[in-house]
Specification:
Layout (H helix, E strand, L loop, with lengths): L13 H7 L5 H11 L11 E6 L2 E6 L10 H16 L5 E6 L10 H6 L8 H15 L4 E6 L2 E3 L11 E4 L4 E3 L13 H4 L7 H8 L3 E2 H7 L4 E2 L5 H11 L4 H11 L14 H8 L4 H12 L7 H10 L2 H14 L4 H16 L6 H11 L17 H8 L26 H11 L1
Parallel strand pairs: 2-3, 3-4, 4-6, 5-7, 6-9
Antiparallel strand pairs: 1-2, 7-8
Helix pairs in contact: 1-2, 3-5, 5-15, 7-14, 9-10, 11-12, 12-13, 14-15
Keywords: Hydrolase, Signal
Enzyme class: hydrolase
GO molecular function: 3-hydroxyisobutyryl-CoA hydrolase activity
Length: about 425
């Protein structure tokens, strides 16, 4: 992966695709995902559109054919727009949406894989993405995400932290990074750790999907609006021409409907989830889940358990610990931790599972990863400790602590940029 080209990790696996799309389109969309994972960003493509309409600003993620994949250009443009508009007194309301039939499915696994032979080839893009995530969490102007279709992993980090996040019956959410040897990132060790009971551990470890209604019920979206009403809602918000939170909320509520969870929703299984995913270790969680699966009426567990047991043992252990630590960390601390985890994972500090997971999914497409080590019992906890160790201060993610200087700490002023410049000069 080139330093000048960013593709942040796409957060899904084939099992999630199979469960999140209706049966008649499963094969089509699975192929579409795999094509996206090998797509190269056209440098001339307008991957993010920024429109200024009086006091309203509209951001459109504009790679519909690739399900609005997040590239280096996307990150840079988002950061530029958000910084400019936060400092602009005439900007009051920001809307963000995805072109086509997806919000954002994340990034490009193939490009991630191609960077495996060059140490820290993607440090710039990882740094920029996590730095941007903090600014989205702490943004000073009113933001509304209009979310339909797929919103997974890094893509969902552009939705959940917003003041208002509007979802529809077509919205699909998931964070299944552990299944390919990665970890739940982009601030989700903070977000998921604050969900009811132990739902966060469940979502992070299993990659289970949530629909729009479930996102609202879980507190990761604020309103449910029928898909057909979304264009009209957008028009009304633009015509409102104000960032007053009460006024914005009032408009959204005109279009929103009360939700009623489907009978088979995983959110109706929280007692079982809490019982199983409160266990101390991944091994104990799996054993407890297996026990519940054997009981009458728990047929829903089978497919989820199968996916969980096929996931990277190293990825599962790192993910569980990250979520558990997240409960006691601020969003800034979570992002700093996730930066360390990501860099150490890409450096294969304790395992090369992330590249093996991507190989199995998008390169050879055999869906038969060979994990190293192959079982949770063989993953040395002392080695897991290594990926959590802080870096030297100047090599940590530099998140500004002073509100007056909140847009400082950018990659180009970091120690990594200086190190990269040195390498280029050699």
């Amino acid at each position: 992966m080139l330093n000048t080209y960013f593709m942040y990790l796409l957060s899904f696996d084939w099992r999630v695709v199979a469960t999140c799309i209706v049966a008649r389109t499963e094969n089509l969309l699975k192929c579409e995902f795999l094509e996206m994972a090998q797509e190269v960003v056209n440098p001339e493509e307008q991957v993010v559109l920024g429109e200024e309409i009086d006091h309203v600003r509209v951001i459109t993620l504009n790679r519909p054919r690739q399900l609005n994949v997040i590239s280096s250009k996307v990150v840079s443009l988002l950061a530029d727009f958000l910084e400019k508009w936060e400092k602009d007194d005439s900007t009051e309301l920001i809307l963000i949406k995805g072109a086509g039939r997806a919000f954002s499915a994340g990034g490009d696994l193939r490009m991630f894989y191609d960077g495996r032979t060059s140490r820290d080839s993607c440090v710039e893009v990882v740094y920029r993405m996590y730095w941007l995530c903090h600014h989205i969490h702490t943004y000073k102007k009113t933001q509304v995400a209009l979310v339909h279709g797929i919103s997974m992993g890094g893509g969902a980090s552009l939705m959940v932290p917003m003041k208002f996040s509007v979802v529809t019956e077509k919205t699909v959410f998931s964070t299944p990074e552990a299944s390919i040897g990665f970890h739940t990132d982009c601030g989700f060790s903070y977000i998921l750790s604050r969900l009811p009971s132990h739902l966060g551990e469940f979502l992070a470890l299993t990659g289970a999907r949530l629909n729009g209604k479930e996102l609202v019920a879980a507190g990761m979206a604020t309103h449910f609006v029928p898909f057909e009403k979304l264009p009209e809602l957008e028009k009304r918000l633009i015509s409102l021409n104000s960032g007053d939170e009460n006024a914005v909320k009032s408009v959204i509520e005109e279009f929103s409907v009360d939700i009623q969870l489907d009978e088979d929703s995983v959110l109706n299984k929280l007692s079982i989830i809490d019982e199983c995913f409160s266990k101390d270790t991944v091994v104990d969680i799996i054993k407890s889940f297996e026990l519940e699966a054997s009981k009458d009426g728990n047929g829903w567990i089978g497919a989820i358990l199968k996916g969980l047991k096929r996931s990277s043992p190293t990825g599962l252990k790192i993910t569980l610990r990250s979520i558990r630590e997240g409960r006691k960390q601020t969003v800034a601390e979570c992002l700093e931790k996730e930066f360390r985890l990501t860099m150490n994972t890409l450096r294969t500090t304790i395992s090369a599972d992330v590249y093996e997971g991507i190989r199995a999914l998008t390169i050879d497409k055999d869906n038969a990863p060979k994990w190293d080590p192959p079982t949770c019992d063989e993953v040395d906890d002392s080695k897991v400790d290594l990926v959590f160790q802080p870096f030297k201060d100047n090599l940590e993610l530099q998140i500004p602590e002073n509100e007056k200087h909140r847009w400082e700490g950018k990659y180009e002023h970091s120690a990594y940029a200086a190190l990269n410049a040195t390498e280029i000069a050699k």
